[in-house]
Amino acid sequence: MNKLKKTWNFLFGFKGRIGRLHFAIFLLFFIISLFVFNTLAYVFLQVLNSPSTIKNFSVYEIIFFAAIVLVLVVLVTIFKYSHIVRRIHDYDKSFGNSGLGITIALLEIIVVFLSFARIEYTLLLGFISLICLTSLVFIKGTKGENQFGAEPIPFWKKHNITQKQE
């Protein structure tokens, strides 16, 4: 149970700090997941817009598929913002006091509302948001401990202290 809780906090937790490499790996995963979700959304919209294929699905199947997509979007959003918040914590700022964090959140909110209007604006704001996310990779964290915890240890240096040295 403790291992499951630790894994959950590692993926979806909002406390603590993460380093630049950890965030860069997350960003790569996030960009790949954007392509996957966009493909799924495209397929779903094609199915909904095609009168011949929509007859093959019941209302319950369409609602079930939409619910799965909604759950995945919520999980990816929590995953994304947990990493953004912890990365901002690494350079000793809270999400609300970081101009970069607020900019990313506002851009995402605007993109959601504009996605119903014009695709050009959505793409432009999405690109600006990606630049802001990428800039988080290059901002150095504070050395030593700060108000959000100890300095993150790189994953290649982590070792179990309780193991006996032989």
UniProtKB/TrEMBL annotation:
Keyword Transmembrane helix: yes
One Pfam family of this chain: DUF805
Keyword Transmembrane helix in record: yes
One annotated Gene Ontology cellular component of this protein: plasma membrane
Chain ranges passing through the membrane: 21-45, 57-79, 99-117, 123-139
Keywords assigned by UniProt, alphabetized: Membrane, Transmembrane, Transmembrane helix
InterPro entries per the UniProt record, alphabetical: DUF805
PANTHER family: INNER MEMBRANE PROTEIN (PTHR34980:SF1), INNER MEMBRANE PROTEIN-RELATED-RELATED (PTHR34980)
Protein name, as recorded: DUF805 domain-containing protein
Source organism: Rodentibacter genomosp. 1
